[in-house]
């Protein structure tokens, strides 16, 4: 049977593992630092590939520097945003803030958007 104290300690270590993998935190005692580094790099590569599929404009704006730009973006976030769409939009904004991506064009006004139903 697991005690409350053991559960609390396990939760602390799990938090440290997550921080080491996604936020560049310290590797907890008992874990292989090299394996943790490889796994963290793998997670960033997975995020980068998904973000590039969701926002090809951001990937194109980063160009040949996509790997380095996304790694720097990921390191700048202690916690990834909730969901890949938010991650992709945040990365695009991050590139825009650095002058790597133009501002988005204003939304087009459609002919039907001016019509209003009678009150």
TrEMBL record:
Disordered: annotated segments: 96-119
Biased composition (Basic and acidic residues): 96-111
Domain SCO6045-like C-terminal: 11-97
Entry superkingdom: Bacteria
UniProt name for this protein: SCO6045-like C-terminal domain-containing protein
Source organism of this protein record: Nonomuraea solani
């Amino acid at each position: 049977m697991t005690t409350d104290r053991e559960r609390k300690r396990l939760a602390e270590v799990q938090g440290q593992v997550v921080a080491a993998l996604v936020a560049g935190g310290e590797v907890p005692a008992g874990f292989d630092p090299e394996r943790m580094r490889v796994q963290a790099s793998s997670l960033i590569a997975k995020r980068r590939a998904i973000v590039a599929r969701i926002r090809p404009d951001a990937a194109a704006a980063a160009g040949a520097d996509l790997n380095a730009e996304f790694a720097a973006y990921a390191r700048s976030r202690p916690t990834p945003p909730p969901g890949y769409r938010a991650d992709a939009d945040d990365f695009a904004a991050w590139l825009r803030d650095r002058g790597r991506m133009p501002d988005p064009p204003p939304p087009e006004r459609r002919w039907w958007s001016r019509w209003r139903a009678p009150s």
